[in-house]
Specification:
201 residues; seven-stranded mixed beta sheet
Length: 201
């Protein structure tokens, strides 16, 4: 799996979560659900689109990863958990995904530090999955707000100092605005993957 493929799978998983929650809730958008639901849907998509090459666990303890010798960076929060852990069929870790929704950039700093620390220490993928919805007076305004949020996250992560030698790629999808009375709503799916240039799984 390449970083490009992981980004695509995450975006597909977020879109799947939005559609599934809309269906099972009778018309509610994903933001009214939970991050745990979104994580489950992303994990399901990763396994399905991985063609049987990968497995996923949700809310995985970071104690279960072999992070090599030495004391783990405090940013890894070794008493914490990864929202999604990706494994190969031999039980070796492929990477982790932290999932967030309806949050501002500043509130995700701990997640970015944990992801980059993991990727550097384990030599594996560290990914960020993000969903946010926007409701504005026009379709153009809704899309503009979603685009601005995606570009804000992307610009910040592409020049993120703690990533050091890691590379990062980002991608996003914006839904077609939907009119609800006198307002228009759209949702943003954003993905970022930190990785070492030599990592291919």
């Amino acid at each position: 799996m390449t970083p490009e493929q992981l980004c695509a799978h995450i975006l597909s998983g977020i879109g799947f979560a939005q559609k599934k929650y809309f269906r099972i809730s009778g018309g509610n958008w994903l933001w009214t659900g939970s991050e745990h639901f979104m994580s489950n849907c992303i994990a399901e998509r990763l396994v399905r689109q991985g063609g049987g090459r990968f497995l996923c666990t949700v809310e995985e303890s970071l104690y279960n990863f072999n992070l090599g010798p030495g004391r783990p960076n405090i940013a890894l929060r070794m008493n914490g958990r990864a929202d999604i852990a990706i494994w190969d069929t031999y039980g070796e870790p492929v990477g982790i995904v932290e999932a967030k929704y309806q949050k501002r950039l500043q509130t995700c700093e701990d997640d970015f530090l944990r992801i980059t620390s993991f990727s550097r220490r384990a030599g594996r993928f560290g990914a960020f999955a993000y969903y946010c919805s926007f409701r504005r007076q026009s379709a153009e305004s809704a899309r503009a707000f979603a685009t601005k949020r995606a570009e804000q996250f992307s610009s910040y992560l592409l020049s993120y100092p703690p990533k050091r030698e890691l590379q990062v790629m980002t991608d996003f999808v914006i839904s077609r605005p939907v009119q609800d009375e006198d307002r228009f709503s759209t949702w943003l799916a954003f993905a970022a993957v930190f990785y070492s240039p030599t990592v291919r799984v």
